[in-house]
Design brief:
With 799 residues, this protein is an alpha+beta fold. It is elongated, with a radius of gyration of 34 Å. The model is unreliable at 421-428 (pLDDT under 50).
């Protein structure tokens, strides 16, 4: 061991350049591997930190609004009866998918302080089902009137404990007279879980126990060994019974004849385990209640990590072989003096392990340095080493395995030859050795070209998404939300909008209920021309289309008096009109008065679907402010805040942002992953070029005699350089022909997740080929320039 350690230190001192390049390449590779694995672990372990996540299941029946998918929601009668009639269920309960972000008031030192907090409604069985851990208080008290449970983080933010009081805001933005008591404090759910957003809950009580509304997400905890399919089939039976009874009860009220098909409403159901919910694409989350991931993107990230490590390991082998000519003599001398082959091979393996561990420690240092940088924001989880011990263990395991794989083959190779043969140069110039090195380099070129193609296409898709024409003007539009009833009431909107437009920088002000561009917000299932149609609806003020520049193709636009009219008025998109809901169509208690183009109100992962604007007389707390060209947005934001404070002195200063920022947020996850892939693609190419350097170094060292003879025979420096480059140009071309189809397949599969995607351009493949070819040629020329210009007499003499 002592001799092996001494040899390792000698290698570091004697071959400084090659050792430094080796350590740098491995450090970059292990850093990339660690960072990517942190993100992959965050996604792959989603919900798994919740105890017994495999036994906690979401009840997901076939959606009544979209028969191609399954819904996160079901009716309360179906869910409650399923729990009561299923011995396989240990516990069960529901959560209402929407949460109310509202003002809350806390009394401190005799004065009331105002905060904002989101609140969910749950049934009594939900906390036990999902394993809510109590810190203070008693969960049974949650059923008492005005009881509320807070997550530990929220309780600390508000300075509350079990038994303390808080007040919710009323319709005028003031605190209510009836206080709520904090009856329970519970431990926060893990950040990478479906319940991370639940920070405060109240009891839903008996609401909708006899209704047919699909308003509740039911979760059940199954007993060990229970069959989830049997429970799902029981839900189907219960739903059929309840739906028939509900239809018969409502038929006289509706005054309509109910068909036999509507009475039966047979639909299937899934029980989706919580530990699989994140990646399950069958479940349709219409309100974005639970985060969802893409297994394709996650696998792409993991593939990049493996490929970067593979390129670095090939580099290590290449560097090792590059040193063979200068190390072969010392190995042979040791063998002549009786050194056992096993000892020599162990020495080389120890050297490989030393390089790997040195690079691993350097990679951890880099990861620590990255923790506080902008780059860390692209990773969903913390990069701290203490928070990722399993990743560290995997990384160390990869280091040991890589040391054995990357070190054993060169160690065996360099010690397996007869000393006399090796001294004559038979090994360094053997056909088998040359083919082996070429194959390794070819793998690097293949990976590098494929990664460049994939990275370029992901970046181009992001640019395509940003530049895609959505059908409305959003470039100079500010948006903000408020819970102030004084600002959001219909009878105060005109006055508030007029005050804002006193600033010459502001040319238009409108409002709506909730964000305009979002995955799903308000979905109505309605019958149109005898077909059940899922309609996305946005309640807006009458001037919404005018401010956002949305034209009316047919009919008329909204009139100002519609804002206070109890009769609803709709402007539908062209797709919904073509389905039968055209001008004059009666939709609920309203009528269609206009038709607009098929605008894109959702991210481009989704296709165009039936959509409708509607004017209602209710509150609308999401405002949109259009600025003049060249206006100073900071000054406009100051004016908006001052005006809001003048109308409601108690309202919080609104968080104002550009509408473009909201749209960009819809692609935040894809943008983060695209950035990571792009950065590490560049890293992989750099590491691959370091491998080219090692191979060229090897070639120039053992072909010096050949070059000298060629120069004596009249070859020029340019001809010698072309001799070295010709082989690598051919290799890059062959690797490109193999990598292009693989890259096309990977890109096409990734783009398949978007409803609107860019075409795969031929020049992307050409750019990848030219980039790798030019950089390789430059590297080969740089490394072989000295040998090509060396005095032939010196080369022959040294040989």
């Amino acid at each position: 061991m002592k001799i092996a350690f001494h040899n390792f230190l000698t290698t570091l001192r004697r071959y400084k350049v090659s050792s430094l390049l080796n350590v740098i390449g491995l450090t970059l590779a292990f850093t990339a591997f660690y960072v990517i694995l942190v993100q992959v672990r965050w996604e792959m372990t989603f919900n798994r930190a919740i105890p017994d996540a495999g036994q906690i299941c979401l009840v997901a029946p076939r959606s009544p609004f979209d028969e191609t998918g399954y819904s996160i929601c079901s009716t309360r009668p179906d869910g409650e009866q399923l729990i009561a009639r299923s011995p396989e269920i240990e516990a069960g309960g529901c959560i209402r998918p929407w949460r109310h972000d509202q003002p809350v008031w806390v009394k401190r030192q005799g004065e009331f302080r105002r905060f904002r907090m989101s609140v969910n409604s749950v049934s009594t069985g939900f906390p036990a089902t999902v394993g809510m851990r109590v810190v203070e208080g008693d969960l049974q008290a949650l059923t008492q009137p005005h009881g509320v449970a807070l997550a530990r983080s929220q309780a600390e933010r508000l300075g509350l404990h079990a038994g303390d009081l808080l007040w919710f805001g009323d319709r005028e933005g003031k605190r209510t007279d009836d206080p709520h008591e904090v009856v329970v404090l519970y431990e926060d759910f893990p950040a990478n879980s479906s319940f991370a957003h639940i920070v405060a809950v109240t009891d839903v009580g008996d609401r909708d126990m006899d209704s047919g509304y699909w308003n509740d997400c039911y979760f059940v905890r199954l007993r060990a060994g229970a069959d989830p399919d049997a429970v799902a089939r029981r839900w189907e039976e219960i739903h059929t019974e309840n739906n028939r009874a509900y239809m018969e009860r409502m038929a006289p009220i509706w005054g309509e004849e109910i068909s036999e098909e509507e009475r039966n409403d047979r639909r299937d159901c899934l029980l989706v385990p919580l530990d699989r919910l994140y990646f399950d694409r069958r479940v349709f989350d219409g309100m974005g209640t639970f985060p969802s991931g893409s297994s394709t993107l996650t696998c792409s990230l993991l593939s990049v990590a493996v490929l970067v490590i593979l390129i670095a390991l090939i580099n290590f082998v290449n560097f090792f072989f590059a040193l063979v000519p200068v190390r072969l003599r010392s190995v042979n001398i040791l063998k002549v003096f009786g050194a056992p082959t096993r000892s020599l091979r162990f020495s080389f393996l120890f050297e490989a392990l030393g390089f790997m561990l040195l690079a691993q420690f350097c990679a951890w240092y880099v990861a620590i340095a990255l923790k506080g940088t902008e780059f860390a924001s692209y990773v969903s989880s913390s990069l701290a080493l203490g928070d990722n011990l399993p990743v560290l263990a995997i990384s160390l395991g990869v280091s040991f395995a890589a040391a054995f794989v990357a070190g054993s083959l060169p160690a065996w190779y360099i010690t397996s030859f007869n000393p006399a043969m090796a001294a004559k140069g038979s090994f360094v110039g053997s056909t088998a050795g040359r083919r082996f090195r070429t194959a390794l380099l070819g793998v690097q070129f293949f990976i590098a070209i494929g990664l460049i193609v994939f990275s370029l296409c992901t970046l181009l898709q992001q640019r395509y998404v940003r530049r895609f024409e959505l059908g409305f003007e959003h470039g100079r539009v500010l948006t903000f939300e408020t819970n102030s009833q004084r600002l959001s009431r219909a009878d105060r909107f005109g006055e508030f909008a007029s005050a804002l437009k006193q600033d010459p920088r502001i040319v238009g002000v409108t409002a709506g209920q909730g964000p305009f561009v979002v995955g799903n917000y308000s979905l109505w299932g309605r019958e149109v021309a005898g077909e059940e149609v899922m309609i996305h609806v946005r309640p807006v003020r009458s001037n919404f289309l005018e401010v956002l520049g949305i034209p009316v193709l047919a009919g008329e636009g909204f009139k100002p008096e519609y804002d206070r009219d109890t009769t609803w008025h709709y402007i539908v998109n062209d797709l919904l009109a073509r389905k039968g809901a055209g001008l004059g169509f009666r939709l609920d208690d309203g009528v269609v008065v206009g038709i607009c183009p098929d605008i894109h109100f959702r991210p481009l992962q989704y296709p165009v679907v039936p959509f409708a604007f509607v004017t209602v007389s209710g509150d609308m707390g999401t405002f949109y402010v259009r600025l003049t060209a060249g206006a100073d947005p900071d000054a406009a934001c100051d004016h908006i805040r001052q005006t809001a404070r003048r109308f409601d002195p108690d309202c919080e200063a609104p968080d104002i942002r550009f509408m473009d920022e909201d749209i960009e947020m819809q692609y935040a996850r894809e943008r983060r992953i695209t950035t990571i892939v792009g950065l590490f693609t560049v890293l992989a190419v750099v590491i691959a070029l370091m491998g080219v350097f090692g191979i060229v170094l090897f070639e120039t060292q053992h072909r010096r005699r050949e070059v000298a003879i060629r120069k004596v025979m009249g070859a020029t420096t340019g001809e010698v350089l072309r001799l070295f480059n010709r082989r690598y140009v051919t290799l890059v071309t062959v690797c490109f022909l193999l990598a292009a189809p693989a890259g096309y397949w990977a890109v096409d599969r990734w783009l398949g997740t978007f409803a609107y995607r860019m075409p795969i351009r031929w020049w992307v493949f050409a750019a990848a080929f030219v980039a790798v070819l030019l950089v390789t040629a430059a590297t080969v020329t740089f490394c072989s320039w000295r040998t090509a210009n060396e005095n032939p007499a010196d080369s022959v003499k040294s040989e």
